[in-house]
Amino acid sequence: RLDGYEVARLADFIPEQIDCFVHAWYDAVGPLRGLRPEEIKRQADDLSATIQARERLQELAVRPLLLTLMAGLHIWNRGRLPDGRQALYEDAVDLLLDRWEHRRVDRDDDGNRRELEPSVTEYLGVGKDKIRAMLNELAFHAHAGQADLTGTADISEDQLAGALTRLDSRHGVRAKPLIDYLRYRTGILVERSDGVFTFPHRTFQEYLAACFLADHHFQDRLPEPASVPMCRWREALLLAGAMVAGASK
To answer: Fewer CB in a 10 Å sphere around the end CB: N or C, the chain?
Structure first.
């Protein structure tokens, strides 16, 4: 943040702005993907219509970051979004994690690429699967301890630093520089306020919590979530059940 500048929060998109964004995004990105003008219009119309027809997609699309994510998934899948919310969330989380985790590079005066920062996996010396497991657990505990039943949970800098440094295979990463390293990376975690992080939407918090439940025999954990209002866990348990059922086929 630059000294002397106030922080402003973007307002949510309204339906007309969502439609305008989708078509402008496709007009910009479509030619780079080799799409013909008629394909660009057809796929943009399809994405806009799909969002307007599905309430859960509308809830995500009001956020510019998440709408961009959906557009990326749509064009990557050749003009369609993944079937089913579980597949949609999984692909979206993968893209968000990739954005959070990628290397930062630029080019020198001669046009040669140079690395400014390594990826998170390289920084910590662990695999991407371990980072994902950490995020699942972080989401589960944040969801369980959230006072409100709407919105996303606060994750303190200390909680995040502790979770990340426990992953450090080299035992040499200091917490404060690691948090600073992640603070300016748009992706699966965003800084809500100074020293407080959160997931970009409750959908992702619930999905990652569901992944933790599915990986840790959620049937045995039912008494724990059942001790709080059931509406807190309804979505996460439905998703976890779908994951377990799909894995058993």
So the answer is: C
> Quick one: tokens of 235?
């979505």
Which candidate, 64, 182, 91, 201, places its Cα nearest to that of 139? Answer: 201
- With a CB cutoff of 8 Å and minimum separation 6, the contacts of 152 are 146, 192, 198, 199, 200, 201, 202, 205
Q: Where are the alpha helices (DSSP H) in the chain?
A: 15-29, 37-53, 55-61, 64-76, 85-101, 120-124, 128-145, 157-165, 175-183, 202-215, 218-221, 223-226, 230-247
Question: Which segments of the chain have a pLDDT < 70?
Answer: 1, 102-108, 113-117, 168-175, 186, 218-230, 247-249
In this prediction, what percent of the chain has a pLDDT beyond 90?
Answer: 32
Instruction: Please say whether the beta carbons of 38 and 83 come within 8 A.
Output: no
Written as one string, the DSSP assignment of 203-217 is HHHHHHHHHHHHHTT
CA distance 143 to 149: 9
- Report CA Rg, the chain: 20
Scan for tokens 């509308």, then name that residue: 58
Q: Tokens at residue 157, please? A: 């800098």
Name which of 224, 220, 221, 192 is nearest 205 in CA terms: 192
pLDDT tens-digit readout, 123-168: 777 788 888 999 999 999 999 889 888 889 999 988 988 888 787 6
